[in-house]
Amino acid sequence: MSFKKHLALTVLLFYSLPLASADVIQLKDQAAVTGKILAEKPDAIVVDVGYTVLIVPRSVVANISRSGNVAPAPTAAASNNPVVSVNLLPQFYYSNNRPATVQDVQDLVKQIGEAVVQVRTPGGLGSGFFINADGYLITNFHVIEGETEISVEVYHQHNGQLDRETYKQVKIIALNKFHDLALLRIEDKNAPKFKYVVLGSSDGLSVGDSVFAIGSPMGLERTVTSGILSTKTRQLEGELYLQTTAQINPGNSGGPLFNLGGEVVGVTNMKITFGEGLGFAIPVELVRSFLDHRDAFAYSTDNPNNPYRYLEPPGRTKNKPAGE
Description:
Thrombin, subunit H; 324 residues; mainly beta; 39% strand; SH3 type barrels; 7-stranded antiparallel β-sheet; 21 strands
């Protein structure tokens, strides 16, 4: 993947020449950061771009042009390589601001299959997916409801082969039972960096668009099912769901529903048992909101089944006779 996809770039097209006194850091993906170099460290370069200070890892730097030594970098209007300002603050999850390129399902499964996992508890199993490389993953609340002993099975690719690895140090980070979402984290000491998915937008979908799911229906891990989006506004129990013809079965719960750009557009969580091709998924917009406000849904060890602690309503005030 390119540097842009990993580090969340904010692309700024400059239609005037950069200041002659500016330093230019050429990146390996042929973009550039223009500003004043404040400090150079062994592993990073600190750059003042005018409205903020950026830290650029040396691993992505191709060349440094200091002011006065070379001609100014070309502008975006005169070049195919845009001048970019790079936001290098760590991201908790990743998303695309532009529509992703449509690809074949077969190719997408090879690219993103490692990011889909099995979530096991003493009471059963479900699916899930990583949202970043640090082991944070999404699944359904009902997959882990009432459970604190959780393990996650990940399939790592090595030399073209898939090796199953089970991680047992899994922490519950946040829960939202009303939208059936749970945020977990793998905390095994020797855990590697994990492959993760990109969150898309269900708002950009149209009825009839192709979608596919990856999960473990009935324990059959890494099962891929495809279909179309039947409706974006199926109301069930007061919530709106994506309805899809992609087959969803027990074990798929918590797994991702993808568009043909390989972006997550929903989290599969239920089906109608007496029919076929009637699967449902939580729109990814609710997942984003859950992640953005995860502190509000933080898991409480005092209440393992529910992240919320409700207070008793106040009783009616009674007038007592004087002297009591």
